[in-house]
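Thread: Newbie trying to understand structure tokens

Hi all, I'm a second-year student working on a class project, and my supervisor (Dr. K.) asked me to get a predicted structure for one chain before our next meeting. I've only ever worked with sequences, so writing a 3D structure as a token string is new to me. If someone could post the tokens and maybe explain what I'm looking at, I'd be very grateful. Here's the chain:
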Amino acid sequence: MQNTGISRRTLLHWAGTVPATPMLGALTSAGILTACGGSADTPTTKTLTGISFGNMAAPTASADRATTFTNAAITLAYSNNSTAIKTLAYKTIYKTGTTMNRPDGGQAITGGYYDVNGNAILDLSGSTPAQYFSDCPDGTSLLKLSNPTVSGVSGNVLFHVAQFEYKTANAKQGEVRTGGGV
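---
Reply by user tm_fold:
Sure, no problem. This is what the structure looks like when written as tokens:
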């Protein structure tokens, strides 16, 4: 008997083909994943047949306009003619200037500037040298590579790629560098 159910892997593969903003926080929740079955090998009684995105009006409350906000939702359609509505949400993955682990075991500053040899470019204008990092993230993509050749990365993975613009100030110009980032 052929498994016609959707698996978590299939759903994540699908998520890698759409824009990542707003992040589909609800899609990774237990609610939708339970509809997918316990594993790729477990048959299910219904399959996901479609996803539609609803409209979202612009926020009217001052508090909502002052933050990254969404009240958008998606409607999931299933093969048994049932539907489910899931709300979307913005989720912070990291902030620029955050130290994160790299796949090779090292660490890197998000949005950090490097020279052509891979060496960190340092801001020497303050009392303590610190790596320059962008305070202006400009765009983001979620990509799936068919054969990634990144050291320490294997399997079916998605890559979050952020485009960063410039740095607006150095430490001497009064910028606070306590890891707060943007």
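A couple of things are worth pointing out once you decode it. Residues 25 and 82 are 21 Å apart (CA to CA). The two ends are 52 Å apart (CA to CA). Feel free to ask follow-ups in this thread.
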